[in-house]
Specification:
By secondary structure, this protein is an alpha/beta fold. It has one domain (about 75-320): Alpha-Beta Barrel (TIM Barrel). The chain contains 11 helices and 11 strands. The protein has helices at about 15-25, 30-35, 55-65, 100-115, 125-130, 135-150, 175-190, 215-230, 255-270, 295-305, 315-320; strands at about 1-5, 70, 75, 85-90, 120, 155, 200, 235, 240, 285-290, 310-315. The strands form 3 sheets. Strands 4, 5, 6, 9, 10 and 11 form a 6-stranded parallel sheet that branches. Strand 7 (about 200), helix 8 and strand 8 form a beta-alpha-beta unit. The longest helix has 19 residues, at about 175-190. It starts with a strand and ends with a helix.
Length: about 325
């Protein structure tokens, strides 16, 4: 079963009526959860609420395919009958040798050169660091320009919580809502315009994967997290291939960037030690972090996927007809 995301005609809605509408749709009050803040601007039907006030031009690329997403609100791979894969990039933290905005700018350039679209999951706290107009006005202008360009170019932005709490699935429902709300507020401030995030990725995969044993801790946490995610109109978006995990591609001190890139590329195209589970296939969702795959490595990944006949699309477009 799938749910179709269709665009709504932009509507002028004043702040009070919009607030009341969101409160009614989400089924909880401002005072009980967020004190003096409004509720999370995503409801059980993310299309008919938050999108109602969005400028049509900023959504043109995203809405062209009118994609359908699983009614379960859980995504790990796309359909296996199409040669499409999705490259997803998480966090957008800066490191001594990697600047998050430089990496984003490089992704946008690769996207244009190779007609590739990415799904981006920034941490809200990192967006706040990038957009600090009072203390760093030049960097703030650059951040706004790049993230707006990402939307205009057809990439999709998803919610990765505000603080990257890797125990998010163990938290109280109100805490989970707050994490998603605060990330969305950070993104909205940075963009300076409304944008609806349909996709959510739990930090570290916390509570993200179901388990066949209904009594297992993983399954209990999964159901707890998913109940909140579904209530807020998000789709929990996991992955089938990870650029940094225990299956053979951990970042090893002393290794060069090129060596780290090569390990990941070998895993995705050939598997690891005979295990082909994470080898790319139709519908693969590939997880990347700026500190686990360089821009040079990303270019090799894209060209390697193209050489094998794959189209690199956003997660929603994996499901588009």
């Amino acid at each position: 079963m799938y749910t179709t995301l269709r665009p709504e005609a932009p509507t002028a809605v004043d702040g009070m009526s919009r607030r009341r509408f969101l409160i009614g749709a989400a089924g909880f009050t401002v005072g009980s959860l967020f004190a003096d803040r409004s509720v999370l601007p995503v409801s059980a039907d993310p299309v008919t609420t938050a999108r109602a006030t969005e400028p049509a031009d900023t959504l043109a690329h995203e809405l062209q395919a009118a994609p359908v997403l699983p009614s379960s609100h859980f995504i790990r791979t796309g359909p296996s009958n199409r040669q499409r894969v999705a490259i997803t990039v998480d966090d957008f933290s800066s490191f001594p040798h990697i600047d998050a905005l430089d990496y984003l700018e490089g992704l946008l350039a690769l996207g244009k050169e190779y007609r590739t679209h990415f799904t981006l999951f920034p941490i809200g706290q990192e967006l706040d660091r990038q957009y600090d107009p009072r203390n760093h006005p030049k960097r703030a202008r650059r951040a706004r320009s790049l993230w707006r360009a990402a939307i205009t170019d057809g990439h999709v932005i998803g919610n990765h919580t505000w603080s990257h709490d890797e125990q998010i699935a163990t938290r109280h429902r109100a805490r989970i809502r707050r994490e998603l709300y605060d990330q969305h507020q950070s993104l909205t401030r940075l963009l300076g315009q409304p944008y609806t995030e349909h996709l959510f990725r739990p930090p570290g995969g916390s509570g993200g994967f179901p388990n066949d044993d209904p009594t297992s801790t993983n399954e209990i946490q999964y159901k707890h997290l998913m109940s909140v995610v579904k209530d807020l109109g998000y789709w929990s978006t996991m992955w089938s291939t990870d650029s940094n995990d225990a299956h053979g591609n951990m970042v090893i001190p002393g290794d060069t960037v090129a060596e780290e890139d090569q390990r990941f590329l070998h895993k995705i195209f050939h598997g690891v030690n005979g295990n082909t589970y994470e080898k790319v296939h139709n519908g693969s969702i590939i997880l990347v972090h700026p500190n686990t795959l360089s821009l040079n490595g990303m270019e090799k990944l894209i060209t390697g996927l193209h050489d094998r006949g794959y189209r690199c699309v956003t997660v929603p477009r994996l499901f588009a007809k």
